[in-house]
Amino acid sequence: MELDSLYQEVILDHYKHPAHKGLNPIFSAQVHHVNTSCGDEITLNIELVGQRINSITWDGQGCSISQASVSMMSDLLIGKRLEEADVIVKSFSELMASKGTSAGDPEILEDAVAFAGVSKFPGRVKCALLGWMAFKDAAIQAQTNE
Amino acid sequence: MSFSVPEIRKDFPIFSRSVSDGKKLVYLDSGATSQKPASVIEAESDFYRFHNAAAHRGAHQLAQEATDLYENARAEVASFIGAPGGPDEVIFTKNATESLNLLAYAMGNAQPGNRFALSAGDRIVVTEMEHHANLVPWQELTRRTGAQLAWFGLTDEGRLDLSDINSVITTNTKVVALTHQSNVLGTINPLAAIVARAHEVGAVVILDACQSVPHMPVAAADLDVDFLVFSGHKALGPTGVGVLWGRKELLEELPPFLFGGSMIKTVTMTSATWADVPAKFEAGVPNMAQAVGLAAALKYLTNLGMDSVHSHEVALTGYLLNKLNAIETIKIVGPTTAQSRGGSISFIVEDIHPHDLGQFLDSQGVAVRTGHHCAWPLARRLGIPASTRASIYIYNDENDCDVLVDSIVQGQKYFGRF
């Protein structure tokens, strides 16, 4: 069933057991993003040590796709340097824009290739990108704050 | 005409297609926009095919035909909503949102001495269940004028809390703007006490009738409101046409909002005077084909009989509410019985986010709306980030409700598998 390509097991697993949820009081920047069409919201804290991402924590409410995506993203980006994170974010954004034509690069995206199916559902791409756009915004603000 | 859903469905070309790989279309999103009968599609296309010209302009036959069709559409609307002052009280807009903005901007143009002039110390009253279209324009008007925004709160069941009308509608209230039927809760608001208090203090009552005019008999004069708005596309009509009805004497005092061709009486290089209503509020060449399409839609509803439309919806709403109430893991948002409520039924399914549920229902051919339904403050008041909404209309039947509920149960199994 087409729906199964959207709701991969690993996605529903992250939805039920989200990683890095709960805001760390120590952060370099905090952002709040909303998906105005559906009301999904996320607050995301990023803590930089030099150019390295020491922590990402978040809180929010939303559908399984938006929540699992930010959970998996946090796992993927914590400990990375900002320039490495840029490559990952770009790769994920390209995957989301692929309209189902790309399977994603597992070398770069690891488990997040599970979101490849989302790109076949244009209405859900925004859900998957909510946390990633929040991260991009937070990373820029954190560097400005330095 | 007797009311037969199978017969009605034959009039709607869209029901001859399937969705989601061959599944029957179960369209439960008429609260967002209704489907269109062939007679509406044909009326709109026939205008372009045979009569197209700019209404109220041109010295030729086509211009006269376009003018006649457009003005006949206005008369059809006036008759449908029981406008006491006839067609002159009906203004065509782009949609209900534009109708409400027209009122808010026009009031903002009122100078001291005009009854619509607002200043600090005046009050505009809304309710906590308003669609953004009947909230944000008033927020902005109060910001521009210094007037104060106040609102009726809600009971936990999703009805207006009218326990203290006099302290909400104070003597300095100039405008009371509220929905006739909530697009989320389905609640039909009782108007008599609110209208009486508003008129007692000299305020005008503006009714957002988007969710009522398509679904039940609505007579502007009987409701005793002062302005009423609705969208054509939720009432079987095309997109791009909405209605603002107002009492003639009020429309005459209200300043215009959009300026330009058609709305003037005289123009010099430095000034202009305004045409009589309704032309004063219709600047530019209007959406003629859409107005003609709306007239065909209202004729279709009139042929069915609005009493029959309403009875059908009350029965079907009760049927669906009963089925949903029977499932412990489903919580209805809003009144749980068909008493004083319409067929917009929002609900929450335990452990499944509405967006995910909507996606699953779509895979079963069931079209619903998910999210905050353009009433974000209401969602906050109810303490829910989002809900799923099924909204019914003339072409829905018990089978559609059965498919919805069966699909919800399947969705629970689908998302419960891990």
UniProtKB/TrEMBL annotation, chain A:
One annotated GO biological process: iron-sulfur cluster assembly
TM helices/strands, residue ranges: none
Residues in NIF system FeS cluster assembly NifU N-terminal domain copies: 7-127
SUPFAM superfamilies in the record: SufE/NifU
Pfam families reported in the protein's UniProt record: NifU_N
MF annotations from Gene Ontology: iron ion binding; iron-sulfur cluster binding
Annotated protein name in UniProt: Unannotated protein
Native source organism of the sequence: freshwater metagenome
Automatic annotation (TrEMBL), chain B:
UniProt keyword terms in alphabetical order: Pyridoxal phosphate, Transferase
Cofactor dependency: pyridoxal 5'-phosphate
Lineage: unclassified sequences, metagenomes, ecological metagenomes
Protein's GO biological process: cysteine metabolic process
Name of the protein this chain belongs to: cysteine desulfurase
Family from the record: Belongs to the class-V pyridoxal-phosphate-dependent aminotransferase family. Csd subfamily.
PROSITE patterns listed in its UniProt record: AA_TRANSFER_CLASS_5
Enzyme Commission number: 2.8.1.7
Xref: InterPro entries: Aminotrans_V_dom, Aminotrans_V_PyrdxlP_BS, Cys_dSase_SufS, PyrdxlP-dep_Trfase, PyrdxlP-dep_Trfase_major, PyrdxlP-dep_Trfase_small
The protein's enzyme class: transferase
Catalyzed reactions: (sulfur carrier)-H + L-cysteine = (sulfur carrier)-SH + L-alanine
Entry-linked NCBIfam families: sufS
GO molecular function, one term: pyridoxal phosphate binding
Keyword NADP set for record: no
Domain Aminotransferase class V positions: 26-404
